[in-house]
Amino acid sequence: MIRNLLIASSALALTMLTGCKPEQPAATTAASAAVPVTAANVTDARLLNAGAEPGQWLTVGGTYNEQHFSPLDQITRDNVGKLGLAWFADYDTNLSQQGTPLYVDGVIYVSTAWSKVYAFDAHDGKQLWQYDPRTPGQFAPKICCGIVNRGIAAYKGKIYLGSLDGYLIAIDAKTGQEAWRKLTIDPSKPYSITSAPRIIKGKVVIGNSGGEFGVRGYIGAYDADTGEQAWRFYTVPGNPAEPFENKAMEMAAKTWGGKWWELGGGGTVWDAIVYDAEHDLVIFGTGNGSPWNQRLRDPTGGDNLFIASIVAVKADTGEYVWHYQTTPGDTWDYDAMSPIMLVDITRDNQKRKVLMQPNKNGMFYVLDAGTGELLKADPFTAVNWNDGVDMKSGRPRVKPEARYDNEKAFNLAPGVQGAHGWHANAYNPDTGLVYIATQRAYFVMQGQNNFVPNPGAANLGINMGAGAAYTKDHPDAPRDFVGFLSAWDPIQGKEVWHGETGNGPTGGVLATAGGLVFQGGGNTTKEFRAYDAKTGEKVWTMDPQTGVVAAPISYELDGKQYIAASVGIAATNYYAPNYSRLLVFGIDGKAQLPEPVTYTPPPLNPPELTASADEVAAGSKHYNNYCVICHGQNGQARTATFPNLMTTPMLHSQEGFDAIVLGGVRSAKGMASFADKLKPAETSALRSFLIAEANELKKRQPPVAPPAPIQPADAHAGLGADSNKK
Ligand code: CA
User: Cα(505) to centroid of ligand 1, in Å?
Assistant: First the structure.
């Protein structure tokens, strides 16, 4: 096996690294006022000089540096108390909203669940258009972690979108009409797209998801005018019996053993992509290997390039330039896909462009953007799988016991929930701090006996039930999964402050030159808030009636600074309202959200169980083969994203049940027809299994009491829809 190619600096005087301000001249709305009134008139020049237009938000990360930093400074800790809702606009979906909005010349563009896109007039929130790619609902079972979209791109009159079912779509920014669409995936394989495209010199660059199911990862560039593919870079080698696509794949193949290509290998590029204009590089993170468990993927224990890596390719050709593998031989679902930012720093009076990434594996990395040289690697939360990183080789010192097997379990930190997920981080050049939606998470890892790959389904290779047994034997073992905002000093490698701790992930982050950090409370804390960037004091909060996970943005219109946030996470019950909206805030904003309504879930009232134990057992098998990935254990584990099968009226009607499961009458909503997989006798067993489960559940519940209505205050999701596992 080969080592990472980078030559790590052994004695970097990191205390000599000092933050420096990125390019950001003071001009604000004058620039935008001069722009012709053409929708999404974003040119290459504007993208390259986005820092010169601080009143705009032209790309998902604000500028090519993706610092999620707004140079606007009207809203400060002194006047943030007067920040109020200027206007809001409702979405037509009750699922989770992860899309970072764009603001271009008076118009806000934002993507929502089911890869829909809205355009709003920023003056008053009037909807200009909505675009729906009409993704077939039956695509939902191919999505591991929520029917979501994390953002769009604007360029020369068009809005670019990656749809769940793998299309790159160009939309006329003026009319909302589809200009063209191009399929970027092999639809026979379980690929999907949830990430934002990036525009780089006339090309649209995008990757895809699917590493949990088993696919071969790649990133592609497509002509922005026509959608024609310009280049594709695979992140892992294919079957070595066939010719390698390039020298990089030949090199990577030497780090693999076994028959990895049968499940694709993994390494999907499902979120982090940045363009380093100075070095003309596209730099991106890659996901976990498929399956997670390396003993099943590659019994020889190789590094498995380029999974769990940060990779740089030439922007024009997609040709390999450098890589740094954050987790060699990943066996813990340690995607290196957390958002990457570029920061100009000064060392020895020399300007140096570095990239920073708080990685899912718990380490905060600083690399030279031009060469991939490792400059710093520090744990930023609880980490127990390594004893630090050897700065000479760049390799983590992995604890042998962390490489679990089928017998020996390991209580991993960070667990597969990650130290950090897809949520945007922000960098404030004034404080020199990176603001991270940090997580402290434990997860018990143990190999799965008798693993048989199941095409089109989740292929992880671990014993998902290991935690229960482990906890019995180790009652004091930590089991946290909590999130908090932390302010991280990347130069000193230490936390400066952190916010309060809540359950699960917190939201994406925006930093502003007004000395504030805006962030949503995440899945379980119904709050949108602002912190003092220096001290961490919470200086403003509002109740968005739902969870907030998407990164907010800031822009300037008619001389006034605004904050915009896309809010909404799937409610605890699929049918409950979740108040998905775009919220826009300004000083002295006076708009009011309508009062939330209460929702009463249907009662747990299953029919009597008449089926035999054998039939229930057969139904259980079908359930675990086809249903569990979406509906969770016993049909009520993921009721935020999918209906609660314990209370569905279909338990009372085999005809109704079959109309859905075989007839596909709800396929537009994401419930595919399983007629190609299940026979009528089998759906009868399936329904019997659900009736048995519902009766068991009812036995365990206190008798008679009718279900309590869901009050708005607890209309929050569990972890299903917004988990970090992609
Ligand atoms: Ca993953």
Answer: 15
The whole-model pTM stands at 0.85
Q: What's phi and psi for 495, nearest 5 deg?
A: -80, 135
d(CA 290, ligand 1 centre) in Å: 9
Longest dimension (CA), the chain: 80
Cα(542)–Cα(449) distance, integer angstroms: 49
The 10s digit of each residue's pLDDT in 485-499 is 999 999 999 999 999
Positive or negative CA dihedral for 650, 653, 658, 664? negative
Domains of the chain: 27-587 (2.140.10.10)
| CA-to-CA separations, 72 to 51, 85, 155, in angstroms, rounded | 11, 18, 23
Ligand 1 center from residue 673 Cα (angstroms): 27
pLDDT digits (tens, 9 = 90+) for 386-427: 999 999 999 999 999 999 999 999 999 999 999 999 999 999
Cα–Cα distances in angstroms (integers) from residue 335 to residues 139, 304, 328, 357, 416, in the given order: 23, 13, 11, 12, 9
Residues 414, 382: Cα–Cα separation, whole Å = 6
Query: What is the Å distance from ligand 1's center to 504 Cα?
Result: 17
CB-based contact 590:128 (threshold 8 Å): no
Catalytic annotation, residues = 333
The alpha carbon of 475 and the centre of ligand 1 are apart by a number of angstroms equal to 28
